[in-house]
């Protein structure tokens, strides 16, 4: 009970020593026992282990394993003690929801992998795994082991050759679970190294009748592209038939916020490789992404504008972006709105970079931007806590706009904000 020990002591209530966590010295809410026989509050011992400690805090003995066994007896005693002292302001601790049992997880994975089992039982096991992952972050940690992820990858792509409906259903369920887990660099590279698996992802993200299946495939595509951390891998994924087209179609799917977010993340991860930017433009990515900017949450605007910035670096990218917004004046107004809104500093930085590309040498667009109030926002970027890259972009724009500033504006006659950093 974080922060509760001092108030209880001040109220004259003495917490029994064995009810306190040896690490935090606070009343335990979820007591668990480690292999040395010592009991700690789950949150405290998990934090202890997460920071790299491999010994028992009390005994200093090395932890042979990191299994945490719920101490139900002690937890009930603590709850009874809380109830007995309710009149003194002590609140009863709730019964914690325990993480998924590793034995259950192994059983579900075995059932899902069993080729001899009926398809329905395999699907049921995979859906139960998915439900457990969604239930809590603790479950996600328990489930996301090398063994489980390896099994899910095998199941997700087992129907790649037969293409039969019976093989497809367990594969789609496995891909759904896989999309909620983080893949390692080796696992991502392992998927990317097999063309038949990339073809399968392209087929699903582009042509599967289920939107949910397409979104899951797009999530796996992003994980593979981002996890492998290799331009060659990203190029291979982006060059697979159906991948770019499928991601763009998800972004363009209005009324489905999750589809748009996942599609944009996938496009961004792939467009980090220069070879994929032309492919993305050919698939219509520019119009699809800029069409979603106005409706995205601030955290997603950053990724969308970063994608647009990458597309602007490709031949024809600037023209495609301007056309997607419906013209240069509309594009300028949209970008200034982003800079003036509540978007993050990184989003404003990407908006400034895109604005540089959109303006080109057009004096008319320069005047449009100044009339929209861009100068004030650029000055704030120069003076504020933005990155050095953002400040350089803002300085460049201020220099471009200098001729378009109103002649009576005192800023137009000052070099204070145009000095290099």
UniProtKB/TrEMBL annotation:
Catalytic reactions on record: S-ubiquitinyl-[E2 ubiquitin-conjugating enzyme]-L-cysteine + [acceptor protein]-L-lysine = [E2 ubiquitin-conjugating enzyme]-L-cysteine + N(6)-ubiquitinyl-[acceptor protein]-L-lysine
The protein's Enzyme Commission number: 2.3.2.27
SUPFAM superfamilies: ARM repeat (SSF48371), RING/U-box (SSF57850)
Pathway the protein contributes to: Protein modification; protein ubiquitination
One Pfam family recorded for the sequence: U-box
EC class of the enzyme, as a word: transferase
Function: Functions as an E3 ubiquitin ligase.
Protein's name in the database: U-box domain-containing protein
Lineage: Eukaryota, Viridiplantae, Streptophyta, Embryophyta, Tracheophyta
């Amino acid at each position: 009970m974080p922060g509760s020990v001092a108030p209880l002591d001040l109220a004259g209530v003495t917490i029994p020593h064995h009810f306190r966590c040896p690490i935090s010295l606070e009343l335990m809410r979820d007591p668990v026992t480690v292999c040395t026989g010592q009991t700690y509050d789950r949150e405290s011992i998990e934090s202890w282990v997460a920071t790299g400690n491999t010994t028992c805090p009390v005994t200093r003995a090395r932890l042979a394993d990191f299994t945490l066994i719920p101490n139900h007896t002690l937890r009930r005693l603590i709850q009874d003690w809380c109830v007995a002292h309710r009149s003194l302001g002590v609140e009863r601790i709730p019964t914690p929801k325990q993480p998924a049992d590793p034995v259950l997880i192994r059983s579900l994975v075995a059932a899902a992998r069993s080729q001899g089992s009926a398809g329905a039982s395999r699907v049921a096991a995979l859906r139960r795994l998915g439900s457990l992952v969604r239930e809590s972050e603790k479950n996600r940690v328990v489930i996301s082991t090398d063994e489980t992820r390896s099994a899910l990858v095998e199941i997700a792509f087992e129907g790649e050759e037969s293409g039969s409906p019976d093989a497809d259903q367990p594969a789609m369920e496995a891909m759904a679970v896989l999309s909620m887990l983080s893949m390692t660099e080796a696992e991502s590279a392992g998927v990317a190294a097999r063309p038949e698996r990339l073809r399968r992802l392209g087929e699903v993200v582009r042509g599967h009748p289920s939107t949910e299946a397409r979104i899951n495939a797009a999530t796996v595509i992003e994980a593979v592209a981002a996890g492998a951390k290799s331009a060659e891998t990203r190029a291979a994924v982006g060059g697979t038939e159906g991948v770019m087209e499928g991601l763009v179609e998800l972004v363009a799917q209005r009324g489905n916020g999750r589809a748009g977010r996942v599609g944009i993340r996938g496009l961004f991860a792939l467009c980090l490789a220069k070879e994929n930017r032309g492919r993305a433009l050919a698939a219509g990515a520019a119009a699809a992404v800029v069409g979603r900017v106005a409706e995205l949450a601030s955290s997603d605007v950053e990724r969308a504008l970063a994608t647009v910035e990458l597309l602007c670096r490709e031949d024809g990218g600037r023209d495609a972006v301007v056309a997607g917004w419906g013209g240069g004046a509309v594009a300028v107004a949209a970008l200034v709105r982003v800079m003036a809104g509540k978007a993050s500093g990184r989003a404003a930085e990407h908006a400034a970079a895109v604005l540089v590309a959109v303006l080109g040498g057009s004096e008319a667009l320069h005047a449009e931007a100044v009339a929209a109030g861009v100068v004030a926002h650029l000055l704030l970027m120069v003076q504020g806590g933005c990155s050095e890259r953002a400040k350089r972009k803002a300085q460049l724009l201020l220099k471009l706009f200098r001729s378009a500033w109103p002649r009576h504006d005192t800023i137009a006659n000052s070099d204070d904000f145009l000095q290099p950093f």
